[in-house]
# Entry
Amino acid sequence: MEERKGFGSNFGFLMAAIGSAVGLGNIWGFPFKMGISGGFTFLVIYLVLAALCGFIVMVGELALGRKTGKGAVAAYQVLSKKFKWVGWLGIVSAFLIMSFYCALGGYCIKYVVLNFGNLFHAGFGSNGLDGNGIFGALMTNQVESVIYGLIFVVITLLIVMGGVGGGIEKFCTIGMPALFFMLIVVIIRAVTLPGAVEGLKFMFVPGYAVTAGIVEKAPSFMNVLSTAGGQMFFSLSLGMGAMITYGSYLDKKQNLEKNAIIIVIADTMIALMAGLAVLPAAFALGGEGASMAGPKLLFVTLQNVFDNMGGVGPIFGIIFYLLVVLAAVSSSISLLEVIVTHFVDKSESEGKGDQRKKYSLIASVLVAFLCALVCVDGLGSNGIWVPFQSLVGVRGFNDCWLDFFDMISEGVLMPLGALLMCLMIGWEIGPKVVKDEIEGPEGHKMTAYGFFNVCVKVVTPLLMLLILWGQIQSFFF
Ligand code: TRP
# Structure
């Protein structure tokens, strides 16, 4: 059998893993959720959860992947009797997340094109519409949104076809530093706008969202906990085997514990930086009654910001939406890779050779169908039937396919996957397996072993249960 080709360097691995973590979740999820859920208080809870759950699950996933040298499904099958089916949850989640991720990524491509249009006063620019008009038109133009969604799927496919070292690593080694640089440019412009300080207050001052009348009442502690927990999982790409997959391609010499810390810190830092880029501008130039919530922040309010910036507006618009496209592509390739790795490994082990191109294509066709469904639905604009319509109006669920797929994956499958992984490591195979993998042949010392041991057995599973309960409660009760 040929050797499984992986990441060429630790830096390349880090860029890919950070690329997976940094995505739409950081750019519009984090700043907005932090603002409405208590500002600085939310941040503190988020950081505590990132240490007690995020870091633990990150180390666990990376170690399981590297130890087995297999994707999510096979890793569980090799290691466990009781939990051998858990990897499949990851494959299902990957399809579900990709369905809406590619749709949103496609919208971002559309906004890059649109801002180019504005730069040259071309017909494919805003054409006199404001953010609301532009977004509304896109949502009801089903053909156009499907086309952009499919363009995004194809970009993801082409990179994944290139393999882990040749496609994913190359893309992220250039894309992530570029993203970082563009983010700094946008932050500098955003925080120097007059009125920017309101956005900073919304983001950091506890209770400011209530004082400013953006939300009616302060959320309960349970509420903040489950919002922060869900956000952290999604943002760090945990609980569905993405980090198992990437870990399986990492060289045995590299230090997993250090890498896990770097990934968690980098992801959190970029989420905070995204807040600095997005919220001050939204408050300063977003216009009366600007929406800070969900897709509207990105596709309505921020487009208004660029339109209100004068001549340089389209240039900042192009930089900003391109940055978001980069962040989204580097995440969606990790989702597709979870699926592709599984099937490629399987066909290798059956002696059928490396069929990466074939499986990437098959998986992408399926994703394309799901993505097209989300696009045709247009966030519920087009009156398409959606399951669970009786839940409409309940916090966190709107009448659209995007929210339905999000509810199942982010709301249920991912925290569940992480919980089961902790139970397997803590109580079936034992945390020492992780320690041995981390210390490896190079003799790295796992400094946090005591902490890991207590967390993976007790603290993390309990917190996961709490988060899961909070999420389910917010959906169903
Ligand atoms: N982390 C990404 C974000 O913040 C989303 C994502 C990419 C993801 N890959 C994942 C989430 C794997 C869970 C699992 O937008």
Remarks:
- The chain has 19 helices and no strands.
- The CA atoms of residues 61 and 316 lie 38 Å apart.
